[in-house]
Design goal:
The chain is α/β, with parallel strands linked by helices and 230 residues long. The protein has 8 helices and 8 strands; from the N terminus they run ββααβαβαβααβαβαβ. α4 packs parallel to α6.
Length: 230
């Protein structure tokens, strides 16, 4: 895999577990609010981190951390991700995957092969606004829907999440997402925060009171909606 970032410890990215966090290079989306501009644009691809460095670190941390989070970019673009996951699992670690849901067949195979324990899938927006929110024309929305159904029918832990941006999201659009996901699944609203590495500047998050009001209204029918980042 092409790994362009490595965080040796995270206490927040894998719910309930301690883990390390890696960032793979490249993405097939161009979400304007993305915080990982260099990963998306390939600016870090000249000096990738050797997979063996990650694997050797895991050998040294046995009993001290529980797993690894694989983020990006979009990790499922990596042709040898299954090989890497298998090596990690062979060392006794849990594997959490972050994905945009655009590669359902690969996602399904990883789950069927027992190579992933937890998936956090981004749902960028209601389906009518997917092109605008993902920054790519002609998004195959059916792939997103298929990934959602794969996770809902799987035997692993998972969550759906949306980074909420004031210029791109409103209550009605978030309600449409909830209507599709259903009332039983975990769905997290992550408030956008501006930073220097964002792909396109000029976007804003919601005020705390605004976002909590949206969450409380959604909770009337969707009790598993939570808010992060406020």
């Amino acid at each position: 895999m092409v790994i362009s970032g490595f965080q040796k410890l995270t206490l927040v990215d894998y719910p309930g577990y301690t883990a390390c966090l890696i960032f793979t290079q490249g993405c097939n989306f161009r979400c304007p609010f993305c915080h990982n501009r260099d990963l998306v644009n390939g600016m870090n691809s000249n000096n990738p981190i050797d997979e063996n460095e990650i694997l050797e670190y895991l050998d040294r941390r046995k009993g001290l951390i529980d797993g690894i989070c694989i983020s990006g970019g979009e990790p499922l673009l990596q042709k040898d991700i299954a090989i890497f996951m298998r090596l990690v699992k062979s060392k006794g670690y849990k594997v959490k995957l972050d994905t945009n849901g655009s590669k359902p067949k690969i996602l399904k195979k990883l789950i069927e092969d027992g190579l992933v324990d937890y998936v956090a899938m981004d749902v960028k927006n209601c389906f009518s606004k997917y092109n605008q929110t993902s920054g790519v024309n002609n998004i195959e929305v059916n792939n997103i829907k298929e990934s959602i159904e794969i996770l809902k029918n799987s035997n692993i832990d998972f969550e759906f999440r949306t980074t909420v941006v004031k210029e791109l999201h409103c209550f009605e659009e978030l309600k449409q997402i909830c209507d599709y996901l259903g009332p039983k699944v975990k769905y997290n609203l992550q408030n956008y925060r501006d930073c220097k590495t964002v792909l396109v500047s000029g976007y804003h998050g919601f005020e705390k009171e605004e976002l909590m009001s949206i969450k409380n209204e959604l909770n009337k029918n969707y009790p598993n909606v939570c808010v992060r980042g406020i």
